Amino acid sequence: MRSSYEHLQFMMKNVLDHLGYPNDLYELIKEPSRVMKVRFPVRMDDDSVKIFTGFRAQHHDVFGVTQGNVHFRPNITEDEIAALSILRSVKSSNLQLPLGGSSGGVICDLRELSFRELERLCRGYIRAIHHIIGPNMDIPSSDASVDPQIMAWMMDEYSRLHTGMDPNFITGKPFILGGIKNKQTAVEQGVYHTIYALIDEYHLPLKDTKVMIHGSGIIGSYIAQKLYQLGVKVVGISDPQKAIYNPDGLNIPMVFKQKDNFGIFTRVIKDTITLDEFWEQDNDILLLTTKQDQVDVNIAKKLRTSFIVETVNNTLDQAAIDYLHEQETVMVPEVLATNGGIVYAYLEWMEYKQGKKFTDKEVDDNFKEIIQHAIKEAKYTSLQKKVNMYLASYMIGMKNQVEAIRYRGWL
Fold first, then answer.
1. d(Cα 410, Cα 28) in Å, to the nearest integer?
2. How many angstroms separate the CA atoms of 170 and 154, rounded?
3. What distance in Å separates the CA atoms of residue 378 and residue 307, rounded to the nearest whole number?
4. How far apart are CA 144 and CA 146, in angstroms?
5. What is the mean pLDDT of the chain?
6. Cα 257 to the chain's mean position, in Å?
7. Tell me, what's the pLDDT at 293?
8. Domain 186-293 classification at class level
9. Does residue 61 or residue 270 have the better pLDDT?
């Protein structure tokens, strides 16, 4: 199994070859143009000093400005940060947003830090990277594990270091400091609107569309409840141990009432099926939300679905993608399905650039329009190029970047 970085580079190379671009372009964008590694001290509550390691990677600035998340995790690596910056470029280009990709983070375990230690960590990280970020350079935004308070501390520290510059370009802030409401569910909203756009674009009957969800974590639970409220039939859902399936649709609120502290509901519900049997059930849209299992060609041959939506990069392996394309299954990759956070960050940045505050309706309308347009473009490209939507999504993301590079005369 390839790593996420290797999978991403494989897809980039494959797409650029398919589109007929020279290898020089791949060599230019296969890695970030800048990766900065920093080490900085943080005073702990017991008055000791601990040294933390952080990163900031910028894929390219062909569009002038880069934007990307900040990650605080104990297992984050330089390679992962580099891959995430490239992935951000592909995703932004898929959405037709004029932004390059970036990513950053600090190796730390948030559970081991006090409130004040976390504040000093955030400020120390900004002091270490402040000269390579800014409103016309690189825009930090929040990851799912990074809350608005963390971004507010970063904004404040930047304002202390650059007293003549408005620090509100940093996104993911609290609403009172220029943030956008409901940012904490941005990724889930993006997946939901992707599924809704598929139903609309392919003219599926809303009330009769059968959706099956592999995984009942944050994304899986959110989508199941939203689709149930919409009237879509959620016919199957799995937890880490087993799964449940009902061709007439599940009562999702009742299912989730059975969840224990470990997210397991199949211990209480009697009519369950194995995870192997889960793949064989009939459905229209299959949503993949777990990191633990990769869908290989053997699993792909069991599937009885017309659409697959991937929410974790590299869930579908290449042999499975090739087989499913032969079966004319429409596949929406993670680079197209999980872009809600990028859209929210872009809209918050646009508020900063325009000096205005969007209404809730304007945010919602812009959000839906950007997601729906991306699905339309991917469908059009897949039909025009006679490729699956999985490849078409990467084609759009890569072509927009390399055409910008070509017009600017970098190669």
1. 9
2. 8
3. 14
4. 6
5. 93
6. 28
7. 66
8. alpha beta
9. 61
The one-letter amino acid at 95:
L
Taking residues 194-199, what's their average pLDDT?
Answer: 94
Tokens (6 digits) for 6: 């290797």
Closest CA to 67 of 28, 104, 29, 108: 104
1 — pLDDT class (breaks 50, 70, 90):
low
**Rounded (10°) angle between helices 115-129 and 148-161:** 50
CATH number of 31-176: 3.40.50.10860
DSSP string, 317-354: -HHHHHHHHHTT-EEE-HHHHS-HHHHHHHHHHHHHHH
For tokens 């800048």, name the residue. Answer: 34
Spatial separation of the C-alpha atoms in residues 282 and 313, rounded to whole Å: 24
Is 186-293 in the same CATH topology as 31-176? yes
Residues contacting 94, CB < 8 A, separation 6+: 335, 336, 339, 374, 377, 378, 393, 396, 397
pLDDT surpasses 80 at 153: yes
* CA separation, residue 98 to residues 88, 93, 334, 346 (Å): 12, 7, 20, 10
